[in-house]
Automatic annotation (TrEMBL):
<dbReference type="GO" id="GO:0016301">
    <property type="term" value="F:kinase activity"/>
</dbReference>
<dbReference type="InterPro" id="IPR023865">
    <property type="entry name" value="Aliphatic_acid_kinase_CS"/>
</dbReference>
<comment type="subunit">
    <text>Homodimer.</text>
</comment>
<keyword id="KW-0479">Metal-binding</keyword>
<keyword id="KW-0963">Cytoplasm</keyword>
<protein>
    <recommendedName>
        <fullName>Acetate kinase</fullName>
        <ecNumber>2.7.2.1</ecNumber>
    </recommendedName>
</protein>
<dbReference type="InterPro" id="IPR004372">
    <property type="entry name" value="Ac/propionate_kinase"/>
</dbReference>
<keyword id="KW-0547">Nucleotide-binding</keyword>
<dbReference type="InterPro" id="IPR000890">
    <property type="entry name" value="Aliphatic_acid_kin_short-chain"/>
</dbReference>
<feature type="binding site">
    <location>
        <position position="109"/>
    </location>
    <ligand>
        <name>substrate</name>
    </ligand>
</feature>
<feature type="binding site">
    <location>
        <begin position="348"/>
        <end position="352"/>
    </location>
    <ligand>
        <name>ATP</name>
    </ligand>
</feature>
<feature type="binding site">
    <location>
        <position position="33"/>
    </location>
    <ligand>
        <name>ATP</name>
    </ligand>
</feature>
<dbReference type="InterPro" id="IPR043129">
    <property type="entry name" value="ATPase_NBD"/>
</dbReference>
<feature type="binding site">
    <location>
        <position position="402"/>
    </location>
    <ligand>
        <name>Mg(2+)</name>
    </ligand>
</feature>
<feature type="binding site">
    <location>
        <begin position="300"/>
        <end position="302"/>
    </location>
    <ligand>
        <name>ATP</name>
    </ligand>
</feature>
<comment type="pathway">
    <text>Metabolic intermediate biosynthesis; acetyl-CoA biosynthesis; acetyl-CoA from acetate: step 1/2.</text>
</comment>
<dbReference type="Pfam" id="PF00871">
    <property type="entry name" value="Acetate_kinase"/>
</dbReference>
Length: 416
């Protein structure tokens, strides 16, 4: 592999063997996940997570993957800039510093790309301005993404920085799924429509599921359930998104760790008029103090299951509400697709919680959906089937890898 590319620092050219690494940043509202990959074999060189940014209990865990033990830093990390600078120091300590000529590009997960961006995009001032313009519709995510981009630019101003948008995969949604039934003039003036998120994950997982089933993605209809701290469902027909549960912002749809998902929009007027809450207070309530945490005080599914097993009623009700919403979406998307070939679970909860998978599909035998208890109990990092041998619809667990997908798209863009 010796694809030639232009070296932005020297104006000369060099072979891909010189610059074959991609750093990926996935900045969330209070965390940053990062990975450094070698694109010659798509292997990971190092991964890391900085969590609880802005709190006194921040923690950085850095894992070098080619020798060396994981390292941890604790103590307050004030913001995403400090988080990224700390990550850069950890990488440098492993001889993988950002100053390396082997680094080809930095890929950023950007949550909201509006309607403009349906492809990975090299970040220019114009692109950054557009990402900034979209802050009001991704208030938990785009600001963190912008800080990540600015900090990475400051560390390596010569390198291409690439944005890979969560919304990109969903731009194929038909108009009847993307539009809300509100006054067209008002909606268009303010670009109010359903955009959808977690698209990089939904796209990657649907392709990996087709591989698992040994069939072309073009022939398959699937329902992908991305259940992390944020959670979304999508209906994918022939590899294209036709419907998804998140909307204008990542608040709509499923019950999440801290987000309510679907509520009657009149709840917001009621809270304002009757409870006297401000718009910002309502925003915080629905985005940060609702979902599982609002219902039972915990947002980690492991802890919730532990409490359920001990007979805790609040945790049990929170779990039931979470599952009920999930089941409604599986039913709705079965109707949208007409024929379902696969239902796929992914992300932290989807990949790890057998009780969630079992409960979500319980009673759906009429839809051809069933989970085999032994298969469901297997713990593995590999894509796998959990439906019974003779099932009409495949049920699968397929680990997502947003970072690998972002690295691939970033590298392809800077090398082609
Ligand atoms: N072993 C497990 N069993 C059940 N849930 C788990 C397990 N491991 C992780 N999770 C859940 O996954 C969530 C994080 O998922 P993840 O996809 O990493 O989310 P995000 O990318 O939004 O941070 C945790 O909040 C926790 O609820
Ligand atoms: C869009 C979104 O909800 O992302 P996350 O799950 O990372 O919070
Ligand atoms: Mg995630």
């Amino acid at each position: 592999m010796t694809a030639m590319t232009t070296d932005p620092t020297s104006g000369g050219s060099r072979s891909m063997n010189d610059a074959h690494r991609v750093l990926v940043l996935n900045s969330g509202s209070s965390s940053v996940k990062y990975q450094l990959l070698d694109m010659r074999d798509r292997s990971r060189l190092a991964t890391g997570l900085v969590e609880r940014i802005g709190e006194s209990s921040s923690r950085l865990v850095h894992t070098p993957l080619k020798g060396g033990e994981p390292r941890e830093r604790t103590g307050r990390i004030a913001d995403h800039e400090e988080a990224l600078r700390a990550a850069a120091e950890e990488l440098a300590a492993d001889g993988l510093g950002l100053d390396s000529p082997e680094l080809a590009a930095i890929g950023h997960r950007v949550v909201h790309g509006g309607l403009k961006f349906s492809e990975p995009t090299v970040i220019t001032d114009e692109v950054l301005k557009e990402i900034e313009r979209l802050v009001p519709v991704a208030p938990l995510h785009n600001p963190a993404n912008i800080t990540g981009i600015r900090t990475a630019q400051a560390l390596r101003p010569d390198l291409p920085q690439v944005a890979v948008f969560d919304t990109a995969f969903h731009t194929t949604m038909p108009e009847h799924a993307a539009r809300y039934a509100i006054d067209v003039g008002t909606a268009d003036a303010h670009r109010i429509r359903r955009y959808g998120f977690h698209g990089t994950s939904h796209a990657y997982v649907s392709r990996r599921t087709a591989e698992l089933l040994g069939r072309p993605v073009a022939e398959l209809n699937m329902i992908v359930l991305h259940l992390g701290n944020g959670a979304s469902a999508s209906a994918v027909a022939g590899g294209r998104c036709v419907e998804t549960s998140m909307g204008l912002t990542p608040l709509e749809g499923l019950v999440m760790g801290t987000r309510s998902g679907d509520v009657d929009p009149a709840v917001t007027f009621h809270l304002k008029r009757v409870a006297g809450m401000s718009t910002d207070e309502i925003d915080t309530l629905l985005n940060k103090r609702s979902g599982l945490v609002g219902l039972c005080g915990d947002n980690d599914m492991r802890e919730i299951r532990r409490r359920v097993d001990e007979g805790d009623e609040r945790a049990a009700l929170a779990f039931d509400i979470y599952i009920h919403r999930l089941k409604k979406y599986v039913g709705a998307y079965s109707a949208v697709l007409g024929r379902v070939d696969a239902v796929v679970f992914t992300a932290g909860v989807g990949e790890n919680s057998a009780p969630v998978r079992e409960a979500a599909l319980a009673g759906l035998e009429g839809f051809g959906l069933a989970v085999d208890a032994d298969r469901n109990a297997v713990r593995s990092g590999e894509p796998r089937l959990i439906s019974p041998e003779d099932a009409r619809v495949a049920v699968a667990v397929v680990p997502t890898d947003e970072e690998l997908e972002i690295a691939g798209q970033t590298f392809d863009l800077v090398h082609n």
